């Protein structure tokens, strides 16, 4: 089974965003990863709803939206309207996570929960059946191009074991420091989807790089 590749548009050339989105459309990538940062939950600001709407206008693939924001509940409907197919919120920013997931689901999107590097996977055991996707952060969120945290491989393995044990259908996605070497380790440990930004857009042939990641 091939691995889902979700290239991070944050690493695209924003002066040529339409061109880069069309390149991803023509590639074997299954999703487009959209990182939303607010400068509060993470120490950086990326882009907001207007840019995401512009991406959605040209994208022919589902938008895999990762909210690194302090109050995601305030914007669920806005991100649905902007074109999100998957909406991933951080465990650390949702005090009433089950309720948040129900709201995402009722808005017609797939549910995702992201975990920072220090957050253990077993905290999700009781609600795994409500989660379509768990996003393991293999770097500290907020900036691209960071060094891969090797403990993430064991984290993926533990989560996969928990999913199998509970008979959940949850997918595992990993974001941060993903390349062909780390990607292979993650897929072997049980990852279903890989997010790659600078590794894809910084390569000589992004379409070929995406294809290689999908066949790890």
Mean pLDDT: 96
Fraction in helix: 25-40%
What low-confidence regions span 5 or more consecutive residues with pLDDT below 50?
none
Number of helices: 8
Strand order of the largest sheet: 1-8-7-6-5-4-3-2
Shape: globular
Could you tell me the number of beta strands? 8
Rg over CA atoms, rounded to whole Å, is: 16 Å
Helices and strands, in order, run as: EHEHEHEHEEHEHEHH
Domains (count):
1
Strand content: 15-25%
Question: Under the CATH scheme, which class?
Answer: Alpha Beta
Determine the CATH topology.
TIM Barrel
Q: Oligomeric state of the chains?
A: single chain
Judging by the overall fold, what is the CATH architecture? Alpha-Beta Barrel
Q: CATH homologous superfamily?
A: Aldolase class I
Ends distance: 10 Å
Q: How would you characterize the largest beta sheet?
A: 8 strands, parallel
Q: What structural class should be given to the helix and strand makeup?
A: alpha/beta
């Amino acid at each position: 089974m091939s691995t889902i590749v979700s290239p991070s548009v944050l690493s695209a050339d924003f002066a040529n965003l339409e061109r880069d989105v069309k390149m991803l459309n023509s590639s074997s990538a299954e999703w487009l990863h959209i990182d939303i940062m607010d400068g509060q939950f993470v120490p950086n600001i990326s882009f907001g709803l207007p840019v995401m709407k512009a991406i959605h206008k040209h994208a022919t693939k589902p938008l895999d939206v990762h909210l690194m924001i302090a109050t995601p509940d305030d914007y669920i409907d806005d991100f649905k309207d902007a074109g999100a197919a998957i909406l991933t919120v951080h465990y650390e920013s949702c005090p009433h996570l089950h309720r948040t997931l129900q709201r995402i689901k009722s808005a017609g999107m797939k549910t995702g929960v992201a975990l920072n590097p220090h957050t253990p996977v077993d905290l999700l055991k009781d609600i795994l059946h409500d989660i379509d996707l768990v996003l393991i952060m293999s770097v500290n969120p907020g900036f691209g191009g960071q060094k891969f945290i090797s403990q993430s491989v064991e984290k993926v393995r533990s989560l996969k074991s928990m999913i199998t044990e509970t008979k959940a259908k949850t997918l595992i996605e990993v974001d941060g420091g993903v390349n062909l070497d780390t990607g292979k380790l993650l897929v072997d440990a049980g990852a279903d989807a890989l997010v790659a930004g600078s590794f894809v857009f910084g390569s000589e042939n992004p379409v070929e790089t995406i294809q290689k990641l999908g066949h790890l």
